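Dear Dr. H.,

I hope your travels went smoothly. While you were away I took the liberty of generating a structure for the chain from your last submission, since the lab meeting agenda had it listed for discussion. I wanted you to have the full record in hand beforehand rather than looking at slides cold. The sequence, exactly as received, is reproduced here:
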Amino acid sequence: MMGVITLFSKYRERSIFMLAVEKDKAGLGPDNMWSFSSFLPRFTDTYTITLQFFDGKSKETRHVQRKESITKWFDEDGLLVMENFFRFFDELHFEVKVKRHDMYKGKNQLQSGLMKMV
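The corresponding predicted structure, in token form, is as follows:
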């Protein structure tokens, strides 16, 4: 039984740890889908995360993959620095959600949104 579960998680799930459905605000249009997957090799601090977005209206799939050192998210005492952690995921979300030609225009909105959180 464990062998079946291992094969399923390795080849079907592909390290996906979260699937989310973003409902259309009006409730009439198709829903958007979000998928998060990650990989952290043994004996290294390099964390690879992939965020995939499927736009329900345009049927377009966009994704971004980042490799980041997890040491940026922790302080000297080993405590998670939430500001750095959330900033990383907000930037990923922004990069996938906003179309490429709109990225420069929307970057100021992201920075102002982060300042409100702090």
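Two observations you may find useful: The two ends are 47 Å apart (CA to CA). DSSP finds three helices and four strands in the chain.

With kind regards,
E. W.
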